[in-house]
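Action item from last week, closing it out:
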Amino acid sequence: MSRSSPGSILEILYTGEAPTGYGSHILRLVTPVQMKSISSAVASQGIAAVVRLPVDTYTDGLPPQAGTRILLLEDVQDPGNVGTLIRTAAAFDYSGIILTDKCADPFSPKCVQSTAGSILSLWIRRTASYLDLVDELRRRGHVLAAADLRGQTAAAMLNKHNSLVLALGNEAAGLSEALLQKSDQRVKIPIKRDKAESLNVAACGAICMYLSSLE
């Protein structure tokens, strides 16, 4: 469970033995039956957090300090994919994620479950004005790299940029032409197209984020 935003955690619910490592957070013992009614997981791990939703998630303004590496998801609709990408972005030390308003809600139950507790580890914006945020980040010096099957730049070059916005598109349609036209680079991952036409967006994102984080 993320400890990057401790102020957002109101209390910790648990079954069994009291968990350690949560500082001054309120710990509340609940029965397994109560936990089952609270959690949507088929097999609960016996611990959950009651959190305050970040107030800026559904606004269209960037944080003053947005960070150097940012993930952009355009119309990624499967909540499992969105949650997995949030978890992966946190693991590779991305600062924030921009989602279009057609993306799965990052705080939907399946998405939160797929983040495995990392949902509070970075800032999130879900907005229809995502292209305006991209423009602002580019003015701040970020390079917009679009993952594109027709790209001409190897994804291995992503680590050459100090400030990066990595854009991933819809599971079926990919990235919009509007976003591709704004991109500074179109990157691709070489795959055997005669064996697999494309990669799942979460797998593509994981590879690209790993490559972008290499020293």
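Closing note: The chain has a mean pLDDT of 91.
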